[in-house]
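Would you mind writing out a protein's amino acid sequence and the numbers that encode its backbone to help me picture the idea?
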Amino acid sequence: MEQTEEFKQLVRARWRFVGPATVFFLVYYFLLPVLNGTATGFMRTNVIGNINVAYLFALSQFVMAWVLAGLYIRQANHVFDPLAERVRQLARRREIGS
């Protein structure tokens, strides 16, 4: 099954999403400690009362994780699942034919 075009298409489609999303998330995640170390004045800037940019950035990481999860679910429903179904159908046909 791994050699079929359908399976290769599924793997390529997943990597086209997962690769860039992972790189984006890691850069976004490590930007907080990097900015805290290099742009301390900016990160200490109060935005609302005693809530500063660093706190807002840290909280935004939770939001970003949920956004990426939502995007992955949407991509899975519209792209990955139909491709996976084609692979399953091909596997069933091969199983019946053997």
Notes: The helical segments are 5-38, 40-43, 53-97. The mean pLDDT is 94.
